[in-house]
Amino acid sequence: MKIRLCPEASPPSKVSVAGVVTFASSSLTCVRTSTGQLATRRATETMDEPDVNYDDYDFDTRSIFAGQRPDPTTGALMTPIYQTSTYVQRSPGEDFGYEYSRTHNPTRDALEGCLASLEGGEHGVAFGSGCAAMAMVMHLLESGDRVVSCDDLYGGSHRLFTGVMEDMGLDFEFVDMTDLDTLEAAIDDDTELLWLETPTNPLLKVYDVERICEIAHDAGVAVAVDNTFLSPYFQQPLDLGADLVVHSTTKFINGHSDVVGGAVITNHDEAAEQLKFLQNSVGAVPGPMDAWLVLRGIKTLPVRMRQHAENAQQVAEFLEGHEAVERVRFPGLESHPQYEIAQKQTSGPGGVITFYLEGGLEEAREMLETVRIFSLAESLGGVESLIEHPAIMTHASMPADMRRELGITDGLVRISVGIEDIDDLIGDLDRALP
Ligand SMILES: Cc1ncc(COP(=O)(O)O)c(C=O)c1O
What we know:
Elements: E1 28-32, E2 38-42, H1 59-65, E3 89-91, E4 94-95, H2 106-119, E5 123-127, H3 130-138, E6 146-150, H4 155-165, E7 171-175, H5 180-186, E8 191-197, H6 209-218, E9 222-226, H7 231-234, E10 244-248, E11 262-266, H8 269-282, H9 288-298, H10 301-320, E12 325-329, H11 339-345, E13 352-357, H12 361-370, E14 375-376, E15 386-388, H13 400-406, E16 412-416, H14 422-432
Parallel strand pairs: 6-7, 6-8, 8-9, 9-10, 14-15
Antiparallel strand pairs: 1-2, 3-4, 5-11, 10-11, 12-13, 13-16, 15-16
Helix pairs in contact: 2-9, 3-4
This protein binds pyridoxal-5'-phosphate (PLP).
């Protein structure tokens, strides 16, 4: 690994997270005069920085404000979409805190500050997609390094690891991390990183993040957790010991199925610095409009997550009692094999459910073609309910024998429960089930 995440570099104690974005050169504001001349205006003519540290506030409040402040030049309450690629300089090399939008953009800065605050981390780094965020984490490693990953994971993550990163000299082993002995045995001297999702996609296995981090750190190995399925509202992996948290902000974080985005959050200064370097060097950045949309989506993250979870619990219970359903996987059900771990490390079950239909592809296809409120589509985490067939859709890029071994069979269906009326949702499923 190019940087040391573990064990020497234990995470620094949490200091005030980027609750307020500081514009690097806020003492000067650049404006155009009525004649179109460029002029600078002294800070006395701009708004003062609000004297608020949002980290002192509860999650719901931070979702609305963290990382943001009223626009200092106009007082605009909402963070402007700084739709610009470049920034004027007063003199060569003398800029106003921003020089080029691949490197820094004020709208993106606000999003990064907000994400860091919600995950309880010191640094947030935003990327153009969840896959880009994962790729940048892999770029923290060096050729010859080994990654031990959970076996059940998003098909695109598997494709990135085996189809791209292995060619760059990284080595991957996929293990079932519910078995801690197997995990421990898989870690060798070349292992630099453990990669896990929890709950996993699509089987919703829940891993004991605290125990896994202890095992990893004892061996000098860093831990990255993909927290896409629960969002920081229900689970905060940094608090459980993880070194890096990764998100596809495309999902619950944004919540409206209108953006593709990703992010990494960490307490490690050196890792953050390297990720910022990669952000600028590789350039997989979100545009200002996308950053703004995610920022806006986050403002309702707590209310959405509460409703997702409440609806999902009722849908899961309905499915569990239905004769056409063989088995349901949902961390909020006592029948879930890792129910106790879920209770220990999360504050809610999230909104994703998978279930096995009695029968196979024919029954699944008929159901997927019959639903009306659930949309047959890939992705998850939006306010609208989605339904999909992992073996044919989201996990098609995973080798067939690996899918079979994991239990991603033709009868497996995944749903992302939205925030519609619960009776409408259950009625839709009831009508479509064989
Ligand atoms: C758990 C998980 N991580 C990462 C990703 C990749 O994110 P993106 O589609 O934003 O690249 C996905 C996409 O479905 C996912 O489900």
